[in-house]
């Protein structure tokens, strides 16, 4: 037992190191006073100062967060209703087919989804910008939420809602006081998944952002193409810390140690 | 007056007819049991009473008013579910208070009623426990408390004890019975355990394939089963084909015996029921029937002895005395141990017949 455990520890350490090394490398150079990652000069906050003085960047970060929060919230509402409705479908084959359609959206490549949204929006004459990004983010977040909520809906016994009616609850009271709390774990997980998907989406957003509007991943991509700028490193560091905080919050408040399904991308 | 009445109630799901024609009356303050095999429609009846489903035909009356389509949340009926159906996000107190809060009762009153209900189910002091800190039996009690705290006119219990182990189950049986007397509420208890039904009820309704086969007090049903199904379902029994000779005489295996049944056409093919505990083993000479012992099983209080008679019918005898496998024995019984059942006789016909000759006898 001892042997395998040291071996597995070693394995895990190596894997984690390989995965985190690029990030730490980035973080390391964000504190360098130089303009490139050729060599560390000396410690300085210059890139952070530049970052916080860069109003365009700040507004893009805010845009990204607003899009993510809005998209995750709306997708959670729509996806949860969807999951509840899917479970209501009596005919097995129909229910199965709806689920398959949902899962196809999950696995199809972002590039294709992005391209089809682009065609869709231009066809409808919708101007590319905030709304097109928001709509597409909501759209690709819904299947994720459905997938997270549906198992919880399935697990919820019919007798619970019956019991609520039996005790005098109206449909709405039974729904809000019994059904929703009963599937809350799934809703929270769906919301956080949607949030992370929206925050770091590049491919879909890339297609549907117009000239005036951008999100973080698209902006970083276009800046990186113009040459390395250590302001990006500073930004990455900040984002890394924020993600750490998010993950902590997620585990602290929504996932009980015993329950499964606590996947954070 | 009857608090609850079913009149020709029908229920089907799609083409699947579950309840064919259900008629009964429930009086206030009694303990009723609906007994029947799995899939016979017991839960369906409860769901119609509670209002989770509506009937496809017939009428359901509650305190004189037809309530066929009345939504569940407006009925003065509460249910104890088979799987308890306690709300997992709420603790014991909040579960029990759920119905009272919906009625916008004052906080103080809620506090009082919940404590009272907890005391009734012997869980005083458990108010602030979480559900996962309770045993199965305790959850069961919380489910009962959650229902009775609303002071319903009728309490429905669907296989409320079936998840409990044997000992706890026996305990809960007498507690439930006691609770019912204490509260004076009508209980309608569903079970497929005939022993439980006999032990707890004032009235038993035996249901099979969507029809009520017989209803009556436990003693009536045990002593005078209406038909083969009931005789077989309730307790252990020997059901033997026989021929009615005349009033108060029936022929088993061609031999004539005195019985206490009358009003049946002479020569009619009938069935007789003899309970295993009413049969005694004696010598071949003294026996009314002769039989050979096939097997013998010790069951703690008595032996269950299987024999077959000279006509090849199997008999089950419960006796505290041992016998020997393979031995020829005599079976003996008293006239009142024989219960004659006519084929396809309804409960009304049976009652009328009983009336006619018991009147004569007295
Ligand atoms: N919602 C439904 N849709 C279709 N069929 C149903 C539905 N509910 C019950 N049934 C059918 O009705 C029949 C009777 O069911 P019910 O639950 O009343 O039986 P039960 O007597 O309570 O049995 P058990 O002792 O197993 O609980 C069963 O054959 C069941 O499959
Ligand atoms: Mg049932």
Please provide a written account of the structure.
The complex is a heterodimer of chains A (265) and B (362). By secondary structure, chain A is mainly alpha-helical. Chain A has one domain: MetI-like (MetI-like fold, Orthogonal Bundle). Chain A is built from twelve helices and no strands. Chain A starts with a helix and ends in a 12-residue tail after the last helix. The C terminus of chain A is likely disordered. In chain B, helix 2 crosses helix 3, helix 2 runs parallel beside helix 4 and helix 3 crosses helix 4. In chain B, strands 6-7-8-3-9-10 form a six-stranded mixed sheet, sandwiched between helices. A five-stranded antiparallel sheet of chain B has the order 13-12-11-14-20. In chain B, strands 15-19-16-17-18 form a five-stranded antiparallel sheet, with no helix packed on it. Chain B starts with a strand and ends with a helix. Chain B has three domains: 222 residues, Rossmann fold, CATH 3.40.50.300; 66 residues, OB fold (Dihydrolipoamide Acetyltransferase, E2P); 53 residues, Nucleic acid-binding proteins (OB fold (Dihydrolipoamide Acetyltransferase, E2P), Beta Barrel). Chain B is an alpha+beta fold and 362 residues long. Chain B is globular and about 80 Å long. Chain B contains nine helices and 20 strands. The chains are: A mainly alpha (265), B alpha+beta (362). Chains A and B meet through helix 7 and helix 8 of A and strand 6 and helix 2 of B. The site of magnesium ion (MG) has 4 residues of chain B, from helix 1.
